Amino acid sequence: YPKQTAKTSFQVTSGKAKYNPAIDCLVWKIRKFPGQTEPTLSAEVELISTRPEKK
């Protein structure tokens, strides 16, 4: 992710996902991979320059 990352959100069908700014990386942890399934991850990243200013 870019250095100016302000906010992240994730939707996963299996496991947990989070952004780790210490290593500048998305971490997706899945404990088990059951057969006949396809885990998916959707991510949205907001940059500091694109966030609306709060009044």
The pLDDT mean sits at: 84
Share of helical residues: under 10%
| C-alpha-based Rg, rounded | 14 Å
Q: Counting H and I runs of at least 4 residues, what is the number of helices?
A: 0
Domain count: 1
Specify the overall morphology: elongated
β-strand amount: over 45%
Low-pLDDT segments: none
Largest sheet: 2 strands, antiparallel
Q: How do the SSEs run, as a string of H and E?
A: EEEE
Structural class assignment = mainly beta
Give the strand tally. 4
Strand order of the biggest β-sheet? 1-4
Task: State the separation between the terminal residues, measured CA to CA.
Answer: 27 Å
What does this protein look like?
By secondary structure, the chain is mostly beta strands. It is built from no helices and 4 strands. The protein has strands at 5-12, 16-20, 25-29, 41-47. A hairpin with a 4-residue loop joins strand 2 (16-20) and strand 3. The mean pLDDT is 84.
Q: Which SSEs are present, and which pair or pack?
A:
Blueprint: E1 5-12, E2 16-20, E3 25-29, E4 41-47
Antiparallel strand pairs: 1-4, 2-3
Characteristic key phrases:
55 residues; mainly beta; two-stranded antiparallel ribbon; Clathrin adaptor complex protein medium subunit isoform 3; MHD
In short:
It holds the Pfam family Adap_comp_sub. With 55 residues, the protein is an all-beta fold.
